[in-house]
Amino acid sequence: MTLSPRLKKTVDFAGKCGVVADIGTDHALVPVYLIENGLYRKAYACDIRPFPLKRAEEYISSRNLSDKITAILSDGLKNVPADVDTVIIAGMGGEMIIDILSSDIAHSGSLFVLQPMTSINDLRLFLYSNGYSILDEEIVSEHRDKKLYSVMKVKRTGEKAVFSELDVLLSPALQLKKTCEKDLYIIKNISSRLEIIENLKKSNFPDLEYMKKTESEIKLLERCLNAE
Ligand SMILES: C[S@@+](CC[C@H](N)C(=O)[O-])C[C@H]1O[C@@H](n2cnc3c(N)ncnc32)[C@H](O)[C@@H]1O
């Protein structure tokens, strides 16, 4: 089975271990890949909605993996057994990922692989402020670079991190990366901020604090453009 670059990076960050839970599994592509490739011995394919869960069950059964992958109807991690080593939450908004992490303690010792579709800076801020450490982060591109995705490998340390304004825009692990995808991500972030500033300038009552913050973020981002 071939996964999209986004999901391939997600499974690569999950590595090889014992029991994995895929939250918001939809088609169950991720758990099926991890089990078929012998990377995990057991998986929970979890979704909040019955229809995607049924689709997941059908796919799992079509691959003869019903003895190794259990489909669970669950809002986030609520109905997920505690024996998991790794929790994957991919293809969801950053706010939803924050909600799921905030309402759970039973799985806090797991490795988390997070792939937010939106609110990425909010998610990084939440992680730093709530005792999680971003061990690794990479930007993956799809559709000829039209779509860029962040994938993060995260562990809860329980220690509140000291972090900078730049760390919210790019995690320290991502700052160290020298890839074209990272540069494209930075350029996209700079462009959206330039647009914000243009719009603020057109406004009769521009929010000057917000403008200053946005300009400062652009400067920080520009300094990180460095792919070889
Ligand atoms: C866009 S799909 C992502 C599928 C797959 N994880 C991926 O990355 O391609 C999002 C899935 O998350 C499920 N979902 C949304 N909120 C959820 C929650 N709180 N708990 C579990 N699943 C949720 C949806 O029903 C949907 O099937």
Overview of the structural elements:
By secondary structure, the chain is α/β, with parallel strands linked by helices. It folds into two domains: 5-161, Rossmann fold, CATH 3.40.50; 182-222, no CATH class. The protein is 43% helix and 22% strand. The chain has nine helices and seven strands; from the N terminus they run H-E-H-E-H-E-E-H-E-H-E-E-H-H-H-H. Strand 2, helix 3 and strand 3 form a beta-alpha-beta unit. The chain binds S-adenosylmethionine (SAM). Residues 7, 23-26, 46-49, 52, 74-76, 90-92, 96, 100 line the site of S-adenosylmethionine.
What layout of secondary structure does this protein have?
Blueprint: H1 5-14, E1 19-23, H2 29-36, E2 42-47, H3 50-62, E3 69-73, E4 86-92, H4 94-102, E5 111-116, H5 120-129, E6 132-142, E7 147-156, H6 165-169, H7 172-175, H8 180-202, H9 208-222
Parallel strand pairs: 1-2, 1-4, 2-3, 4-5
Antiparallel strand pairs: 5-7, 6-7
Helix pairs in contact: 4-5, 8-9
